[in-house]
Amino acid sequence: MSGPILSVRGLVKRFGGLVATDGVTIDVRPDEIHALIGPNGAGKTTLISQLVGELRHDAGTIELEGRDIGALPTARRIGLGLGRTFQITCLLPEYTVLDNVATGVQVRQGHSFRFWGNVRGETALRETALSFLETIGLAGRADEQVANLSHGEQKQLELAVALATEPRLLLLDEPMAGLGHSESRQMVALLMALKTKVSMLLVEHDMDAVFALADRISVLVYGRVIATGTADEIRDNADVRAAYLGEGDELC
Ligand SMILES: Nc1ncnc2c1ncn2[C@@H]1O[C@H](COP(=O)(O)OP(=O)(O)OP(=O)(O)O)[C@@H](O)[C@H]1O
């Protein structure tokens, strides 16, 4: 078996006296959806921010396909294959759906937000961007202004923009947030279909989605991973059940 896509060892982040991630060790294997769950304030977003380089860690290591990326700036990490979607929608609302995906393509090509150039380049860029929209089922909305999309379509578009950077590992920060039941089911189906194309670390409060998608689940509580295992192992874990007692999230 080949090594993990992502290997995190002993990651620590302190905010003054608060230890937000407290020696987190976790890995994501090739073609795996690894879900990270935990009560509010457990440190999930802090961990994602450390992985992408928006927050510097105080201790520990982060390796992407065996390469230590812990000291690299965010743009370099993206260039090496780290992709992410955001908890709060982060699209350019006044531009079209296609323009937004084109920004992802251009990031991959080493340009940042250059937008449309000469006609030949424009055609190639348009075709590449369209192919990502086809993958996520939004090609029919390519020329629509983003502001006119539903919340569910915007979440799908975020995914297309992230995919356009051609990541080896996709960090998904609450892709189901704010989605209705049928939109959530659509997103689950989409992520399931993408599984063979890209490995994913999924932060999500929607337990139906987590248990439907995840090959393995890690549970973070007060900055520490208290358990990692399959859905069945996590469901039966007494420490995990105790951590969720009284929380809004319900383990199914
Ligand atoms: N910039 C910051 N400065 C100080 N404390 C912070 C900062 N960011 C997060 N924290 C604290 O770190 C802890 C972990 O927060 P974090 O947002 O990572 O949790 P989370 O698991 O993502 O929560 P949620 O599920 O509610 O999004 C919390 O106690 C939070 O208040």
TrEMBL record:
Keywords in alphabetical order: ATP-binding, Nucleotide-binding, Transport
UniProt entry tagged with the keyword Transcription regulation: no
InterPro entries membership: AAA+_ATPase, ABC_AA/LPS_Transport, ABC_transporter-like_ATP-bd, BCA_ABC_TP_C, P-loop_NTPase
One GO MF term attached to the UniProt entry: ATP binding
Domain ABC transporter: 6-247
SUPFAM superfamilies attached to this UniProt entry: P-loop containing nucleoside triphosphate hydrolases (SSF52540)
Protein name: ABC transporter ATP-binding protein
Organism this protein belongs to: Ollibium composti
